[in-house]
């Protein structure tokens, strides 16, 4: 059944936004994707993982091969203590056979550009520098007013504008604010050929005062992130002072970490990591939230992007199969809420484990981590094996 929609506004040009736009274009809906940032600003960001459950959504859109060409397969994760000893690992090398795809790592800006370009190629009106400042509803439509003064009307408006969603603040002003997870994030890309990292593997190090993750990308580049709970990092304006702060936090940790940080031309961030454990509702009238705007998760579960991709398919499918937008939004929320909130809880739990530990706690962690990783891998498998289908009717 073809969706009764004629026009849709999608706010946010990250992951969920252009993806839901492509599915709506498949239904013949006229779609405008409104991204507040300018084209130049959209190059910011580090990297992320796309899990098998997210990759299957991209495959449904015919983008699987292009994404694989722009990303790198992740063979697995290895965990190290502050002395550099490997204390456990999660192996992804059989995931293609088990789940139909293997996790890949991709630069965030590269993913955003690819999705927006694909949406534009399929007929979506994709705009940068289009900041929504006000929303209003009138009979049969919703109106978004842009900072430029332009007013755009559509049958529905979909908020895909992230954890600090402007759409959420306008349409659901009573929603709780995102919660600080206790971690701040800095990252970067470096060429550090002497770093003892195996290509395709992510090395996770529980440092004495901070957590450090590094992915050995093909071609010798190291993609890395640093987590710690010191908000002071957010307040250091000078990048070189921030670099010095990171180096000080990793003093006494494996020396290759400092080598990677020093070899990084430009530090990315800092970002304070927030999540949204739950919202009372995801929709109001002709407006619906999806992705991080509805259920932001910290990066610690590696599922944020993949959940956004799942949301995009499911919401478009609900709009396809349901005559009234409000009923479609309710079905979407009912289908998605339990799954996404379980992932948010798991991510919060994973993030708590990155906090610096004293000598006794570190001794206990090093010995218990293999058990924790087996439990974590089981939870991960449940996330990875989940499939959302375009063909069956919603409901």
From TrEMBL:
The question of whether Hydrolase is a record keyword is answered with no
Q: Name one GO molecular function term.
A: monooxygenase activity
Q: Which UniProt keywords apply?
A: Monooxygenase, Oxidoreductase
Q: Start and end of every FAD-binding domain?
A: 8-347
Offer one Pfam family short name for this entry: FAD_binding_3
From the Swiss-Prot or TrEMBL record, give the protein name.
NAD(P)/FAD-dependent oxidoreductase
